[in-house]
Design goal:
By secondary structure, the protein is an alpha/beta fold. It is built from twelve helices and nine strands. Helix 4 (about 90-105) runs parallel beside helix 5 (about 130-145), helix 7 (about 185-195) packs parallel to helix 9 and helix 9 packs across helix 11.
Length: about 300
Amino acid sequence: QDIYLHNLNVKWDDIIGLDAAKRLVKEAVVYPIRYPQLFTGILSPWKGLLLYGPPGTGKTLLAKAVATECSTTFFNISASTIVSKWRGDSEKLVRVLFELARYHAPSTIFLDELESVMSQRGTVPGGEHEGSRRMKTELLVQMDGLARSDDLVFVLAASNLPWELDPAMLRRLEKRILVDLPSKEARQAMIRHWLPPLSNSQGVELRTDLDYGLLGQETEGYSGSDIKLVCKEAAMRPVRKIFNALENHQPDNSNLSTIRLDTITTADFLDVIAHTKPSAKNLSQKYTAWQREFESV
């Protein structure tokens, strides 16, 4: 059930920003399938890519776009998929996963929250459980096997805590990209996407009168998911004003199309910002410091 054969419906264009990450994913997954004659010898495609950065910046969304846009089998793997309580089972599950990926090649293995599976060995106080250590070793062995084979199997990993990852795993993830907080232009585009001047959803019209330039400036330090949350809260403001009218409404003799929602203004949006704080503002410096040491773009 962890193989995505259905369409997740996330396109490249749905992701605002992240150009470096999109370019590398295309180099590793899309172009080798499209132009196999180019990717031979020293030009063989990348086998591993790590997306790291603050929470809510679009790492998992990028993986969904890979599942949608690339004509590959997509394996969505988390700790619960490959960790077992039975002795020796985890290693077998890891081996079977990579064998399945080779069988269904071209394929992409997505490891979300990688630090939960591949934290540094030998750093746990009191020693690490041997089962956990064997599972990590098997994962490293399988990834090394990928690097030496011509199978079109690509490992895409995402992590919020890259400094907790094992150095051997970092070596196998050849490309490491910081997915940072969005720029001012990206924030403006996100607000314009979620709150356009006029939107109509199932007959309910929502109008906005926003200064997108000012709001892009005021939302500095907000991640993509923070901005979506702020837009949702701003859109709820005019809806809350009509709840009393809706409660007194007789559902059998009237319809909702007669209800007009107030226009969302810049002042409303700024008020929401004052009460909705960013979730990852102070983490940015830590990621930049790690990037200076381990970046591989």
